[in-house]
Design a protein that fits this description.
homodimer, alpha/beta, Alpha-Beta Plaits, TIM Barrel, 2 domains, eight-stranded parallel β-barrel, 18 helices, 15 strands, 41% helix, elongated
């Protein structure tokens, strides 16, 4: 088999992919690996009169076979290294549709230094965000304005204001709120930034609004530029539904704003354990492309994803050097100059989740809670207060129930939702 | 259950989604449907103090439950109708990651007239392409330059020239060829368009080059503009790896070129029968966004996808009015002013596949063959000739083997690869 070379030693310029492979009934595991390395690099299904020496030299090699896992090494000449869509059209392109496999999962991608050098990475990263927020140590506390859709611009700004005044650092739009007729982007942005100013004045804290710019590329660019013009500090993007081209564009040619990446739609790719692309692989791509904050999961709350997995993803976006701890799950990565991304936990969280969440995520996490703030019996301001209180409790090493004894907002939240 | 309304009658402005749902062990089918309609519209996991009348009015309704299938109606007020990323962040966003489901598949989307009115659709469509090519009836014959990667710009142009002179109408880049150091975009474009002129001169036929512009948004725009400037007629885009924002951008603000959509990576979303998004749903989105040509599958060759499925997708992109023939598979669609998209069959095809392929695809198909042209025993020119011959045979109603008796190139191809 031409594309399987068990004694191949990857060069430091090779990009490495870890795949989980289930061949169809007509192929052995090894033959399926051969097909994968072939179709994702230079080959096709038949002998070619046009095949040249370069093509033979730069082919991918399946070199580490560990059924059902395989590592494939791709010489960097195969890629336009600065072009993520091109890289994905190779390593995550036609191979998912081949008859030769029943299931195929891209588990991890390890970028060579040569590729990393082509990217600036996050503009702010964890350190830049903490400096902007003037919050050096504790997790940031955020909320998403709820209901997801339905509020007009003014009511939206009002809910945001109460959340900030209650104690949230961050207020975020929902992933499906952009510019609907009942809540036009420009109006919402203006009103909410005004509320932000009021909240900053009242609390003496830095407050930020993550306004959802998601749209076609140039429309999204205009929306981001308007944020900058109006004195905002953040843009939010749904990075899956906008796509790799637009995310690269916003980082490379967009205004100087902190970039918050929401991952709506990721589950269509990441959920099935045997097929698709892992959140780990996507997260590393978004770090390389330069988002500053990324949703990585909660391991508690309404969304799926186990603790171990969420922690692994968070480490791969937050640390500078990752060593693989399990060769069926991650490849490790040296990030060189690429700054750490602030991991975001969001989805069905309430104050009762915060203690265990901080236990395994540490302090470098943005804890976002929508229903868990606005669903508080005494409203959004009290809900925000309860979230800040439970974070403070954990920072001081105090059990939430104990802390709740003289923090009434937290008490009411825990009474309603419990702890987990 | 608030979001299940079995007696709901959708309004003509509602967008309808057909989902296949597998609840997790803690939820009934009906409860999972409730979660889906809730999370993809206005709801969250808890009661909200901020919930208003508008949110209640514009909520999605799961109204047609047919375990494991459900139709969900979304009032159009939920959407920024001109913004596909926003629509997808709603109907194909967080719901794929909910704990409440084990598997979820977006099977089809039916766009209301109100949404269709926001889009121009394909600029050329089948009729425009046929007029440009001066080929009124038969399928178009195309090739992809092979090997996928490895040729320099000059050799690439030479292979293209032979393919055109042999009989191909269309020459296409491979999905992972963009601008690698050994084959720079500008050089390849210039050399290949020169070859096109030579081939047009020699054959008296129209010939087109589909140059792969795939990149970050503004780089892709520049690459497309260069095609226009240099007298090209087509741009090619990898529509999945670039993403919805970039595809909308290229149609709305790009140069006047025919847009060829390659679907590399679709299998990561479409392959699993229980989870993800069907190719049918994606294909309809790309038609709405205005691509002129789209890969829909082959049902023969190296890629998966059955005949019935490929035919259904092709009909949904090529017809003006589609009636659902199976309510577990498609919703039907009225396309109004949106032109038909030319369906492309590509992936492991050779002349022996053409007769059965035309049998079920009809004449409105672009038949692309890479290895099946350049793998011909006598080279690319003979391979292209064999492909044209077998298309001609079918147009005349002659069996390929009979036609091969006095068409030596076809004979050699059939002897090598057989018929299927």
């Amino acid at each position: 088999m031409e594309f399987v070379e068990k004694d191949y030693a990857p060069s430091e310029d090779d990009l490495i992919c870890l795949f989980r492979v289930e061949p169809n009934s007509e192929n052995s595991f090894e033959r399926a690996c051969d097909h994968i390395a072939k179709e994702s690099s230079v080959g096709t299904w038949t002998h070619l009169g046009t095949l040249n020496e370069r093509a033979k030299r730069i082919k991918a090699r399946a070199y580490k076979l560990n059924d059902p896992y395989v590592e494939v090494a791709y010489p960097s000449e195969l890629f336009e290294l600065s072009n993520i869509p091109q890289v994905m059209s190779s390593i995550a392109g036609n191979i998912f549709g081949m008859k030769a496999i029943d299931n195929l999962r891209l588990v991890d991608v390890k970028f060579p230094k040569k590729m990393i050098e082509e990217y600036a990475g996050p503009r702010y990263g964890i350190e830049g965000v903490r400096k902007t927020m003037e919050v050096p140590e504790r997790p940031l506390v955020g909320t998403i304005v709820k209901p997801k859709l339905g509020l007009d611009a003014k009511s939206h700004a009002k809910v945001a204001e109460e959340s900030w005044i209650g104690g949230c650092d961050v207020v975020k739009d929902d992933e499906n709120l952009t510019s609907q007729p009942f809540n036009i982007y420009e109006d919402r942005l203006a009103a909410t930034l005004e509320s932000r100013d009021i909240a900053e004045e009242e609390t003496g804290e830095k407050k930020v609004y993550m306004c959802n710019t998601t749209a076609g590329s140039s429309e999204m660019m205009e929306r981001a530029e308007l944020i900058k013009e109006m004195g905002g500090r953040y843009m939010m993007i749904d990075v899956l539904t906008t796509g790799f081209s637009a995310v690269q564009e916003m980082r490379e040619n967009g205004p100087d704003l902190i970039m918050h990446a929401h991952r709506a739609m990721h589950g269509a790719l990441t959920r099935n354990k045997k097929h698709g692309i892992t959140m780990l692989a996507l997260a590393k791509l978004y770090r390389l492309m330069g988002v500053d904050q990324l949703h990585v999961g909660t391991a508690v709350g309404k969304m799926e994803g186990g603790k171990e997995e969420v922690r692994m993803i968070a480490e791969n976006v937050e640390k500078m050097k990752i060593k693989s701890r399990d060769e069926t799950k991650e490849l490790g990565q040296e990030w060189h100059h690429i700054k750490p991304v602030f991991a975001v936990s969001s989805g069905g969280l309430h104050p009762g989740h915060v203690d265990p969440l901080m236990e395994f995520m540490g302090n470098d996490v943005i804890i976002q809670s929508g229903g868990g703030v606005h669903g508080h019996p005494d409203g959004s301001k009290a809900g925000a207060r309860a979230m800040r209180q439970v974070v403070d409790a954990k920072m001081k090493g105090i059990d939430p129930w104990d802390y709740a004894e003289d923090h009434i907002e937290l008490k009411k939240a825990l009474d309603l939702w419990g702890t987990s």
